[in-house]
Amino acid sequence: MAEEVRQGGEQLRILGETERQQAEQERSQAESKRALAEDQRQKKEVQRQDAEILRSVAEDARLAAEDARQAAEVLRQTAEEVRQLQSETRAILQELRNELRRNTGV
Fold this sequence. Notes:
Residues 1-49 are annotated as: Disordered. There is one protein chain. With 106 residues, the protein is mainly alpha-helical. It is 97% helix and 0% strand. It contains one helix and no strands. It has one helix at residues 2-104. The longest helix is centred in the middle third of the chain and has 103 residues, at 2-104. The chain is rod-shaped and about 150 Å long. The model has no long low-confidence stretch (mean pLDDT 94).
């Protein structure tokens, strides 16, 4: 009888140890799932931030392109004004040469 009690106690001890190990495994798995969920949440946040940065960069690029277009237009207009002034200057110089020839007889 004492042997049966001892064996029963041993079985209970083994059963208790098995249940404790199982509970520890479940706790560890739950912690792993929580950590994985947190990692996924952080990755999504990083992706959201990256997307916001990309939107901002795209807007900056759009604004820079618009500024460049406007600057190109100003340069085109300035070049046209320079061409016009050069033409007017040539005409004035030609008139002065003609006037000089008339006045000097050369």
